[in-house]
Design a protein that fits this description.
Two copies of one chain form a homodimer. Chain A is of the alpha/beta class. The first copy, chain A, has helices at about 20-30, 40-50, 60-65, 80-85, 90-95, 110-120, 130-135, 145-160, 170-200, 205-210, 220-230, 240-255, 260-275, and strands at about 10-15, 35-40, 55, 70-75, 100-105, 120-125, 125, 140-145, 160-165. The radius of gyration of chain A is 20 Å and the shape is globular. Chain A starts with 10 loop residues before the first strand and ends in a 16-residue tail after the last helix.
């Protein structure tokens, strides 16, 4: 574990100040980094400025100011990552050839491998949700060369608690997909379990309490189970992003020859929620509504 | 939490000294109870005797010796419970009308309700596996009248750590089915995730470590994930008992009108492992082999 002092004076770029990115940038700033931030919409840029960070207007400006430093990304999809770094934004034209990208988002494995052939790139997707981002207790699954990983480590340790280097570029993304597969299917399991209890006349809140600490215990039962019991589906993590991840998982499974009827069913369930029922703006835990 | 002293001198019957029952009976004995035990096969009876418990030869003998006390059951299926208590064994004929049964097994909800109309009955299925039974840290999900639950409580607290009274007879079994639904589906999710990592070139042991502490964290990822990584499928909990539970879940879901394609798929997966591939004697975590 690195200490916060290790970022003193380091100039770090941060692109994407959403639910996850905003608190992560804040932690880097609090650890002494000199933050340069960019976000598509102006609201989060202004909030960052009010917290002592410098917001830039354009991505080439960000690239020029960072020089041979590190730019962190926390964006929504592979397409957005590609367009922000290599697209018409003009960032790639201005980036120093010694600069490094840390991609905290969930980005496709083949795209990550191809990005890493064009510049120094660490894939560092995170797990732990908004709660973990706020508390700087994220699990971080990193891929990239050993030297790039070591260079990223002080930043990774500032925003996360458990940082694992899993291998070359793309390895972090592979592990994040494995993680999301478990998350997507466990949310479904917890939803059915609590609904089964309720329909059978057992208070689902009491059932959840009884199951915590046994073999069914999980972070999902604890946090999302509580949301289901309270019918509180205001989005922390949106269901549409879960579907995006499940689609990436299905792609990756096909690419490596993993056949799974359970995974096919999981895709159907998330498509039913997000596409058929148009509930993509609900929290992940809103999958519960399929069983009502 | 009751203290162990509370069982001093109490005479308790225990029927079924398997992987779970044997350590539970031992904990009751260690807490000062005077244990009378019965098991179908003689091996576990002899082991219990070597640990200071009294083994009886027949079930009517057990019933007569216990009188208006408590008889605990830890048996494999609903049919076995019915046959041991109400069948030709002769136990029911000799049982005192003030005696009480505590059923620690996973028994069908409608059968539990009908047994509870014939005598004082607490359904108290457990979660936590053999590890939890050995350590007396089981989660116990109890159903029955308030007075019966209070009478059972010193025993429940001796073998478990988290004891929850969920409502009238059958409520414990409902909650155990909810628990087993989560267990059955989470094992499947963890199996796919670790295999996806492996086929994608990431060390599954490292992937498991990275995922612990994030949103995918669960008791199943921790314990069964480790078995999968080590390809150690020697049974703690047998896959055939998991299939038995999934069948009970499907029955209960149908009885209360819960429609779930995910549950249908889960039944298919466990039947594939246990019936089609004849691997019912593997540990639960052996579901991993479906993806090899």
């Amino acid at each position: 574990m690195m200490t916060r002092e290790s970022l003193n004076g380091q100039r770090i770029g941060f692109v994407g100040l959403g639910n996850m990115g905003a608190p992560m940038a804040r932690h880097l700033s609090a650890a002494g980094a000199s933050m340069l931030v960019w976000n598509r919409s102006p609201g989060p840029r202004r909030t960052a400025e009010s917290q002592g960070m410098k917001a830039v207007e354009t991505l080439p400006e960000l690239a020029a100011a960072i020089g041979p430093g590190v730019i962190c990304l926390n964006l929504t999809t592979t397409d957005v990552v590609e367009s922000v770094v290599f697209g018409k934004s003009g960032l790639f034209e201005k980036i120093d050839h010694n600069a490094m990208i840390i991609d905290f988002g969930t980005t496709s494995v083949p795209s990550t491998k191809s990005f890493a052939q064009r510049m120094t790139w660490v894939d560092a997707p995170v797990s732990g949700g908004q709660v973990g981002a706020e508390a700087a207790t994220l699990s971080i699954m990193a891929g990239g060369s050993e030297s790039a990983f070591q260079r990223a480590l002080p930043i990774l340790c500032t925003v996360g608690k458990r940082v694992t280097h899993l291998g070359p570029s793309g390895s972090g993304q592979v592990t994040k997909l494995a993680n999301q597969l478990i998350v997507a299917q466990t949310i479904d399991a917890v939803a059915q379990a609590l609904r089964l209890a309720e329909l059978s006349g057992v208070d689902p809140a009491a059932a959840r309490q009884a199951m915590l600490g046994g073999f069914a215990d999980s972070r999902i039962l604890d946090l999302h189970g509580d949301r289901m019991v309270r019918r509180d589906f205001v989005a922390g993590g949106r269901a549409e992003w879960q579907l995006k991840d499940v689609r990436l998982i299905v792609e990756q499974a096909a690419a490596v020859g993993l056949r799974s009827p359970t995974l096919d069913n999981s895709l159907d369930q998330w498509e039913e929620l997000v596409v058929t029922r148009s509930c993509g703006d609900l929290d992940h835990s809103g999958l519960f509504t399929l069983y009502e």
